[in-house]
Amino acid sequence: MKRYWIPFLVSLFPILTLPTLGAQSPPKLPKTSVRAEIQAPSVCALCIRAHMEFLASDAMQGRGSGSHDEQVAATYIASEMRAFGIAPGNGQSYIQAVPLLRRKLSAPPVLKLGADASLISWSYGDDFVAARLSQPGFSGPLQKIRADAALKDDTPEEPMVTPGAVVLVMGGSSAAIRRAAFGAASAGAAGVLIAGRKEDFAEGNKLPQLPARFQGSATPDMGGDINVLQLSEEAMARAQQAADGTQVSLEAPSRQEPAYTWNAVGIIPGADPTLKQQAILFSAHLDHVGIGQPVNGDAIYNGADDDASGVTAVLEIARVLGQSSKPRRTVIFAFFGSEENGGMGATYFREHPPVPLPNIVANLEFEMLGRPDPKVPANTLWLTGWERSNLGATLAQHGARLVQDPRPDQDFFARSDNYVLAKKGVVAHTISSFGLHAQYHQPSDDLEHINFPHMNSAIGSLLGPVRWLVNSGFTPQWKDGGRP
Ligand SMILES: [Zn+2]
Q1: Ligand 1: distance of its center to the CA of 293 in Å?
Q2: Cβ(348)–Cβ(217) below 8 Å
């Protein structure tokens, strides 16, 4: 999520006005123009394009949480930070390997409806597949809801879901069904059943992947278990005939094995003897959802907007801060793995930060700023949880084209890594310009749908305010009741 603009910062501003180190006799610039460059850092449109083209390429296979592709993304980011003059933020290394346990199904799951004589048993791949499975099993009483009844224009009204129920979503467009399913899962449904399409069954009985977990610990702060199954036409018809309260259960044998997710962390130690005790954290998540069910023949969920765009924004801030005079405060750049699995990389970082957590006086997470949000003025970004602290308003006073999140009903404040930090007291928000586009978590969230002029102006317009923040003594505060 995140965005804004100041005219002179756009990409039209020549990038090559700084002397090139190592080249034979760089052109001499008058001192005044060098100073002007330092005061008004300009965005590097080619850098933005380059990061996006690598991170959101098909070669990265959607940067699945905890995957090898995620590790490659972290390694790329680490290399870039090295080039920008940023020091490693995890001891001698940029890479923070986060130990996890991966659970794997060892046989296809079975879905059961009813009991005793009326028991129906459905087999995986023929009667149902999994859109998303967080656990090897779940059970609960059936609750039927209508997708269209749960909606009012583009604002999903929470359907009245009984926590622990297995919710069957009926009727409505595929977008309405999707929103109702997500709403039901967020409202505490043990599982959600929706109608599948033919293409959902294209991969036959290939077993669903379960998200990894921390060793020995419970669920992370963000998100929760989401189990969404897609039923065949016959199974859907049969399920619709069953009465509310009928027992539904999913069972599958599973085993666990060690795994990792990957963070990339860099640091610029502050130059001021006092202010260096305080750190400003810029962050984004480097993972996306990987390879999934094909849509129109495309199975790679590139995650260009979500969240290659946020990673790119933080890399661009790192480039500007790393290649100019040292900030007075310490600056940390953190790129988290497994955000899509509930903020796991951020949770580990929070427990293993490069400076004590209370020294991090502000966190800005960058999410989905690859396209403008029609609900806010052009070249403007929004900040989640605006009213919770004085950080957004103060950045706006210092030139940030930053406004209040226009969709508080979506609870974006609690839907990214910033929330993991905020839960421990760090004044942490997310900057975005996500306008609820239809490509969200689809294979079509790709480079073709990125608005590069918007990215350039949005990122460019933040560089001045960011530079002010890392050199100032301003310590943002939660407002009364604002801390989650
Ligand atoms: Zn995201």
Answers
A1: 19
A2: no
